[in-house]
Design a protein that fits this description.
heterodimer, A: 198 residues, alpha/beta, Rossmann fold, six-stranded parallel sheet, 8 strands, 37% helix, B: 172 residues, 47% helix, globular
Chain lengths: 198, 172
């Protein structure tokens, strides 16, 4: 696209998570998971290391299970494109407590920076709006990010934000890799002693 | 196909709800019609229609993160759509319960249903999902009861395969 994308991904994520409080966070695989880790690892973050295309739907299951808690899915444009149908599924369920923020660098960052469909004009925010999200927008400046961060807790969603970021590669900041550990620490932090009782 | 709704399907719904299942993820399917309709009519349950079955695998992992229990209702063709997503179940050791209405097995008249229908068990086994097969109505409730224990007490991944001997074969 002709417009310059200048937002710094680490600054975006740091801002969104600066006052995260009890926010429940799911991240897509790759750079969004590294960004969330760079902003501060937390047991209430569930970062993916695989299962590409699953982040939004994990967020939906979590949001339906915990309607009183704000849930944020932070993922990349490539990951979101692999699960586009989930936008329609979320649009039907309309959970007020779910927000999706897509860090859109128009590239597949982990595989050699090949262009994604968004580099050719595919408009994820328009797709989310067409699927029935209560709010959907494209964000190109930090003022927009700060406004989004302030709305995460309002539970007036589902919210969708396509965040146009620069295509750079900040240093790796890796979360734990063991999926069972990530799941168990998340459940323990959220559910307390009930987490291990069935 | 039987014209009246068989009682075992209502029994299954009551059993799932009694054992704490609240999220019913599904791709519309005649074999699961009673369960889907019951979930849609139940104000204490969440019926989640999917665009493709793999969405349901991820949904149920999210449900577990949030302390809720779910089940994925799908046809055997949908199993093929789930394969890579089952990495999430295995990697995270998430409990997983799916009820699969079979095509491409007993008495199937549509040749296009055979490739995936016959691949269901080997594919699920390869991804670490244990298969329990139901062929007679009286086996349905005890088998799903066992599957609930295996999934939510033992944390396993379980598929209950509802055979065409049970639900009837389509001639087309």
């Amino acid at each position: 696209m002709s417009r310059a994308n200048t937002l710094d991904r680490r600054a975006v994520v740091r801002s969104l998570l600066a006052r995260r409080g009890g926010l429940l966070l799911v991240t897509g695989l790759g750079a969004p998971a590294w960004d969330a880790t760079a902003a501060g690892d937390s047991p209430l973050t569930f970062p993916l290391w695989g299962a590409m295309g699953s982040a939004a739907m994990i967020g939906l299951g979590l949001a339906l299970a915990q309607p009183e808690r704000a849930v944020l899915v932070l993922t990349g444009d490539g990951e979101m494109l692999m699960g586009l149908g989930s936008l329609a599924t979320i649009g039907v369920q309309r959970p007020a407590n779910l927000a999706l923020a897509v860090l859109d660098n128009e590239r597949y960052g982990e595989t050699g920076m090949q262009e994604t469909h968004t580099a050719h004009g595919v408009d994820l925010a328009a797709i989310a709006a067409g699927c029935g999200f209560a709010q959907s927008e494209t964000i190109r400046d930090m003022a927009g990010i700060e406004a989004l961060g302030a709305r995460l807790d309002a539970r007036q969603g589902p919210l969708f934000a396509q965040v146009k970021i620069a295509a750079d590669t900040p240093p790796l900041a890796l979360p734990p890799r063991d999926g069972a550990l990530l799941k168990n620490r998340f459940r323990a932090a959220l559910l307390g002693p009930q987490a291990d009782l069935a | 196909m039987e014209q009246t709704s068989p009682g075992w399907q209502d029994e299954l719904y009551d059993l799932l709800r009694r054992r704490g299942v609240t999220q019913f993820a599904y791709v519309p399917d005649a074999g699961h019609r009673v369960l889907i309709d019951r979930a849609l009519a139940d104000p204490a349950a969440q019926a989640v229609a999917l665009t493709t079955e793999e969405e349901g695998v991820a949904l149920l992992a999210g449900a577990d993160l949030g302390g809720a229990r779910g089940v994925l209702l799908m046809q055997s063709s949908g199993v093929g759509n789930c394969i890579n997503m089952l990495s999430l179940v295995k990697g995270g050791r998430f409990p997983f319960l799916t009820l699969v209405s079979m095509r491409g097995d007993f008495g199937e008249g549509n040749p296009w249903q055979y490739p995936m229908g016959q691949a269901v068990e080997p594919v699920l086994a390869a991804m670490g999902v244990i298969c329990l097969r139901v062929e007679r109505p009286e086996e349905a409730t005890p088998t799903v009861g066992a599957a609930l224990t295996m999934a939510f007490q033992a944390g396993s991944a379980i598929a209950v395969l509802l055979s065409q001997k049970l639900i009837g074969a389509k001639p087309f």
